[in-house]
Amino acid sequence: MIYRWRSGSIHNVAPEVAAEVCQRLEQQGRLTAQELVNESRAEDAPLHPEFEWRDEVAAERYREEQARSVIRSIEIVSEEHEPVRAFVHLECAKPEYTAIYSVVTSEDRTGMMLKNAVAEIKAFQRKYGALKEFAGLFLKIDEILSEIGVAC
Which of 8, 107, 113, 147 is at a distance of 20 to 30 A from 21, taking alpha carbons? Predict the structure, then answer.
């Protein structure tokens, strides 16, 4: 098999090395995030360079991930609609969270969110493209994107 890192991701080892370690753990029935960390603790472990081992740096990054979780978890509740996220992450010049009301009232921000949505849809299609049960769904998605003028 040929492996590659997803576009935009930054890594310190070759994707084949990571895939080999993950395959071995999967075959042993223990491919979890915790097991991958444990497997990588030794300084000579193939994936050791992929992890931040300085506790003070890792702790701060974990707190940042917790902060992202807080932001992503806030919803707006209304009687007219299903709950929606109060803040959305927009990939723009400076990736940031933006209040949903700022997005829907700004043509530029709506365009950014639409671009992000299409990227997420394409990621979903890559992830589940091998499932023939979703073939009709993917055709419909492409049809809708074409109707609204978004390149597939």
Answer: 8
**Helix boundaries (H) for the chain:** 15-27, 33-40, 55-73, 100-104, 107-128, 135-147
d(CA 147, CA 108): 20
| pTM across the whole model | 0.69
pLDDT in tens, 4-20: 998 778 999 999 999 99
- Treating both helix axes as pointing N-terminal to C-terminal, what angle do 107-128 and 135-147 enclose, rounded to 10 degrees? 160
Q: b vs e for 101-131, b when ≥16 Cβ sit within 10 Å of the residue's Cβ?
A: eebeeeeebeebbeebebeebeeeeeeeeee
* Alpha carbons 18 and 15: distance in angstroms, whole number: 5
**Residue 66 and residue 137: Cα distance in Å, rounded?**
34
Helix (H, G, I), strand (E, B) or coil at 91: coil
Domain ranges of the chain: 15-50, 53-85, 87-152
**Is the separation of the CB atoms in 98 and 106 below 8 Å?**
no
Query: Rounded to an integer, what distance in angstroms lies between the CA atom of residue 51 and that of residue 11?
Result: 10
Separation between Cα atoms, residue 68 and residue 66, nearest integer Å: 5
Cα–Cα distance measured from residue 138 to residue 129, given in angstroms and rounded to the nearest whole number = 8
